[in-house]
Design a protein that fits this description.
By secondary structure, this protein is an alpha/beta fold. It is about 40% helix and about 15% strand. It contains 14 helices and 14 strands. A hairpin with a 2-residue loop joins strand 10 and strand 11. Helix 5 packs across helix 10. Bound molecules: pyridoxal-5'-phosphate. The site of pyridoxal-5'-phosphate has 13 residues, from helix 5.
Length: about 400
């Protein structure tokens, strides 16, 4: 049977593939340390699970409105007011099956063939492929650890053409954990406003920021910016709810309405039971987020310190998310156990084969010469994993 050209033009998610490979090795009884995970290793809080159980027991198990119930839209409205000082109405909100689904719908709703979307690299693996699936052209702006992986307004101005339609901002970032200040966001937003480019702001790691870093949504930097921004967020990372699949997008009514049209002809509503759980996550106690954050910060400090003690590895300390993105370029071209490692992909393969540690090569995120390690795993696992890494590099 024929596979469409559209699908042939994209690749499967490399982060999900590495996570699956590590899990499969574990199942075979091999003691793999998995630094590939893109999800908190904590359980979903009990109050949230209870809300889902109540939903099942009370029969809230049927179709509901495509873009989400009024109850969850109100919970999102309150969250955006409370945390981001942003005001929205229900017609400006859509709830989807995860933030990933919201992002997919945005590109399908806004991108025509040949439209260009600016994506700063390192980028989350799915952005370029989602743009390609919609017929668009990803325009990558490369950055490095020298600039804390941040783009500047000048970088943006340089790549703008008559076909530029949108830019993606992801702060805190997956894979680097880097964050943008309110001032930096405002200057980027001004360039977008001037050039008629709309902004897709992926804020899924908003709650996971450390060292008193104050998160700012680009949409709150000026009222004009709010008008040209679609904010994407969800409950996956902040409330350890990756499997529940609830995310949302907020933005101009015409775009949200177009996204709802797509959703009405594809998935319909996100799962009704998960919607009830997400209402509790957004409206209920936020204590759990704080304790999870404390643990993540401890792990981040430890992993960054250990990595920087290793010769030829340098690791910036990120302010957000649960990833570190060390520079390993000084190791490339060297020989370990008789094997010369020339690329970050070969390096990641070697670490999995020899040291039994799973990391994601930077190339998967458009950044050669780096690897991504997720510290969403216990401090004992981190210690063991870095011990193994150190020992392997000495061989
Ligand atoms: C930057 C970024 N955006 C979006 C998502 C998708 O989140 P969700 O689980 O809500 O689909 C992820 C998940 O890994 C992510 O890292």
């Amino acid at each position: 049977m024929h596979i469409s050209k559209r699908v042939q033009s994209i690749k499967p998610s490399s982060t999900l593939a590495i996570d699956a490979k590590a899990k499969a090795l574990k199942q075979q009884g091999i003691a793999v340390i998995n630094f590939g995970a893109g999800e908190p290793d904590f359980d979903t809080p009990k109050n949230i699970k209870d809300a889902a159980i109540d939903a099942i027991n009370s029969g809230f198990t049927k179709y509901c409105p495509v873009a989400g119930t009024l109850e969850i839209k109100n919970a999102i409205i309150n969250k955006l007011k409370r945390d981001n000082n942003l005001t929205y109405v229900p017609e400006e909100i859509i709830v989807s099956c995860g933030a990933k689904h919201s992002l997919y719908n945005i590109f399908q709703a806004t991108i025509d063939d040949g439209d260009e979307v600016i994506i700063p690299a390192p980028y989350w693996v799915s952005y370029p492929d989602m743009v390609v699936l919609a017929g668009g052209k990803p325009v990558i702006i490369k950055t490095s650890d020298k600039t804390n992986f941040k783009i500047t307004p000048e970088n943006v101005e340089k790549v703008i053409t008559s076909k530029t339609k949108a830019i993606i901002i992801n702060s805190p970032s997956n894979p680097t954990g880097c964050t943008y200040s309110a001032r930096e966001l405002k200057t980027i937003a001004q360039i977008c406003g001037k050039n008629n480019i709309f902004i897709i702001s992926d804020e899924i790691y908003e709650k996971l920021v450390y060292d008193n870093f104050k998160f700012t949504s680009i949409a709150e930097t000026t009222p004009e910016t709010k008008d040209i921004t679609i904010v994407v967020n969800g409950v996956s990372k902040a409330y350890a709810m990756t499997g529940w699949r609830i995310g949302y997008a907020v933005g101009p009514k015409n775009i949200i309405s177009a996204m709802s049209k797509i959703q009405s002809q594809s998935t319909s509503n996100a799962t009704s039971i998960s919607i009830k759980a997400a209402v509790e996550a957004l409206n209920g106690t936020q204590e759990y987020v704080e304790s999870m954050k404390k643990e993540f910060k401890k792990r981040r400090d430890y992993i960054v310190e250990r990595l920087n003690e290793i010769n030829d590895i340098s690791c910036a300390k990120p302010e957000g998310a649960f990833y570190v993105f060390p520079n390993i370029s000084a190791l490339l071209g060297k020989t370990f156990n008789g094997k010369t490692i020339n690329t970050d992909i070969e390096f990641a393969d070697y670490l999995l084969d020899v040291a039994k540690i799973a990391v994601v090569p930077g190339s998967a995120f458009g950044a050669e010469g780096y690897i991504r390690l997720s510290y969403a795993t216990s401090i004992e696992n981190i210690r063991e994993g870095i011990d193994r890494l150190e020992a392997t590099l000495k061989s």
